[in-house]
Amino acid sequence: MATEKAANDKKVRGVFEKIPGSGVYWIRYTDADGKLRREKIGTKSAAKALVEKRRTAVREGIKLPKNFRARPVSFGELCDDYLVYAKAHNLGKDVDGYRITKLKAAFGTRPASIPLAELRDWFAEQSWEPGTFNRYRTVLALIFKLGIENQKTEANPAKLVKRRREPDGRVRFLNQYEADEEARLREAVMKKFPQHMPELDIALNTGMRRSEQYLRIDWTCVDLLRCDLYIPKTKNGASRHIPLNPEAVTAFRDLYARTKGQGPIFAAKRGGERLLGPRHWFEDALAEAKVKKFTWHDLRHTFASRLVMAGVDLRTAAELMGHKRIQMTMRYAHLAPAHKLAAVQKLSSYNAAIEKRIDVVSNQLPSSDSFNSHPTLENGVTQTHDSNGTAILKTGRGTDTRTDTRPKPTLVIASENVH
Fold this sequence. Notes:
Helix content: 40-55%
Radius of gyration: 41 Å
Low-confidence stretches: 409-419
Number of helices: 16
Strand order of the largest sheet: 1-2-3
CATH architecture of the largest domain: Orthogonal Bundle
Order of helices and strands: HEEEHHHHHHHHEEEHHHHHHHEEE
Mean pLDDT: 82
CATH topology of the largest domain: hpI Integrase, Chain A
Structural class: mainly alpha
Number of domains: 4
Shape: flat
CATH superfamily of the largest domain: Intergrase catalytic core
Strand content: 5-15%
Number of strands: 9
């Protein structure tokens, strides 16, 4: 026992008590990069074992990880960082905030380096539509991306979670299923919420997103003299102008008379505070009008659908809608069957013109009889042609065969430059 105690009390190079008598031992060594390191261990025996392990690693050229002794970071901390970032830079911060809260509740106490298998299992447990699944995946990937930029984590496992294929975007517009849907909706609004009729007219005639209409614009964006509406900051980060038709101008003038051009455009009847959305009245109006499977965003679909059905080209419709990609507008292309029919009917005219041109050229070709005749040349010489176009000259002294240098008759194909 005395021998063991003496051996334990013997000083070991690289092992020391930072506070004498505390019984807590530290180790000191030089790593493979030549950097002096210190680590708090605990008991002296554990310190002696670890310092030998570290020295063996140095001799074998094994380097310590870059984040060695780094402060442990939880996934919840990454979520908090991204929430602050989203509030400053993301127009959809409210929706993102809800998704971040759900992700934090599931993994908040876990270390930032969450295994990919666990993320896949968690996503598989959710009964989401493909669009919702992809939105959560996107937010999760952005959380890890910001964590990497802040040097709080090294990998982004969300990038390896496979996205789900989304169906084509839903298009629902007024009068789609019943011809009097809009009439019923207007009657219900006038009956129960007449003060909100201008909001409905503006939505139907400008195609603004809900956030643009209620949160982005103010009276400085409305030019009633030039009939122009300026959207300063849209969903995709770009601004745009929307021309105002008479219905929209009338609605804005009604609201201008109420507010005297001061404060928010869409304000509460009591207190004059800015309205954040139409939910408190629009859903009740839909129920009163018995318009089914319809949302406020479908008013935007109605605006776009009516543009296309009125013959407006898709590029112009995309600009009015504020679509960054024309693919977003292509979902309304099927609503213009008359224009598609007119396009394919042009092909019939084109084909008829080609056939007419071929008939004209065919009538201009020499007949076969002209090549079978035997014209008489000078000095009583007659000329005929064989099947290969070779000229045969006959005289009283014999027959002379020579190659005819005239071009052979060929079929001329009509040019496709039909006017």
